[in-house]
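Reminder: ligand-aware prediction takes two inputs, not one.
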Amino acid sequence: MTQPAIIILGEASIPVARQIQIALPDAVVYGLARRTQSADITYANFGDIVRELFQGGTPIIGICAAGIMIRTLAPLLTNKWQEPPVLAIAEDGSAVVPLLGGLQGVNDIARQIAAVLQVSPAITTTGEIRFKTTLLSPPPGYQLLNPDDAKTFISDLLAGAKVKIIGAAPWLANSRLPMAEDAKLTIQIIAKNYLELAKPSSDCLVYLVDDRDGDAVLSSPKDETVTQLPSQGKPSQGKLAIVGTGPGAPLWMSPEVTEVLQTATDWVGYQTYLDLVESLRTPEIIRHESDNRVELDRAQMALDLAAQGRAVVVVSSGDPGIYAMASAVFEVLETKAKPEWETVDIRVCPGISAMQAAAATVGAPLGHDFCAISLSDILKPWAAIAQRIELAAQADFAIAFYNPVSKQRTWQLEKAKEILLQWRAPETPIVLARNLGRPGQQVTVKYLTELTTNDADMRTVILIGSSKTRLVAQGEKKQWVYTPRHYQISSSSREFGQN
Ligand code: SAH
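Here is what comes back for the chain with S-adenosyl-L-homocysteine:
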């Protein structure tokens, strides 16, 4: 693609322009000469530069009102097949509006920009929203041969007609096209050698595949229908994303995770975690709920589903790599090692872990060296947990306790406190954070000596300060907790241990 142009009218738009460059690293920022100082290139006249870029086929991202862009380009809008993508972005980055160039992937660009700006793109093309695919702008390697029939074809689809695909179209694998064997509409994927068998019509969209390997489709000259041989065509590659949704609040979920969830075919996870993101689910996405204790079965099911070519998301809260599903997936991958899993495209999408969210609500208690310890003895013996607490306390780490107390595990926290008090002062600040980012969030700062089992449950994460962690007042109303970044060995913690 030609390098996109980000057009700005004033210096105030630079921060948003630079953020857009994170999504589109090739993009060049064009600034109005008399109003900008740090643009990559300057121009003298908005209308002239926009029209010139448009005619040259350059994707245009205007940080300006949609109306200005429309009026500037109106006289040039004659051929929808040749329009480059054009978008208008609000100056404060709060809106991303794809205007033109639907056939050149403007909605994809809108989604990429919206992801870095953390907003929803204003996508209005019905076919794409409903079917999660752009029949009019196939990916590189495919060319739609009868675009003029596409309008009627898509209208029929929107009106409820079904479709069947003949040939290999991996890019449609995760779409939500209404498929049926006896469908009225056909999508035909065809290689150059078999072009004479193409039957373009308003009931049949024909895509010419750039078939360098010569194995995408075959034709059966006898009955003049096009068939795909079983061994030919590449099966679509299944995907498995293991995502962390953060502790709960949507603002604490990364744009990457939002996108992966919205473009999935299947969600797999513990019911509570799936409920937390339910507002993002469309009816076509299948929920596979499971109990919180069957992680390995869940991981295996997710891998199996992905091996069938589906786009599967395994949902964890917080970060998926911290006491969560990512390890379970890799554990199953290692121990069961089914051959059909080898081609699954696995990715881990990080999230804000409970300890980070807890720390942020009170200041910076994890500002220096720290560690995390789960108090659950389901997967490791208490002796190992006790030893870790002792050594972490001795080493003067700040500590985040996950899974501190459950209905069945009630004594461990008291025991942990006992061990800590051998090394740490009774007035060490601690943070009890419950239901972070969820309804009923509760964060309390106390001293270690005041900690009781009643303070915590399975929805609580506890931060224990190091010997340096301190409380700091901001005026009369606000108090923060922080751990200084510098560390001089003082004798305090050691002396304490000797008490
Ligand atoms: N992957 C998660 C941790 C899962 S282990 C993460 O990175 O946060 C489950 C434990 O995490 C809970 O027992 C609790 O200690 C902590 N936790 C998870 N979500 C929490 C939340 N919203 N508020 C407080 N603690 C939470």
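The pocket of S-adenosyl-L-homocysteine is lined by residues 247-248, 316-319, 322-324, 353-354, 402-404, 433-438, 458-461 (CB under 6 Å). Residues 127-233 form one domain. We will return to this case in the review session.
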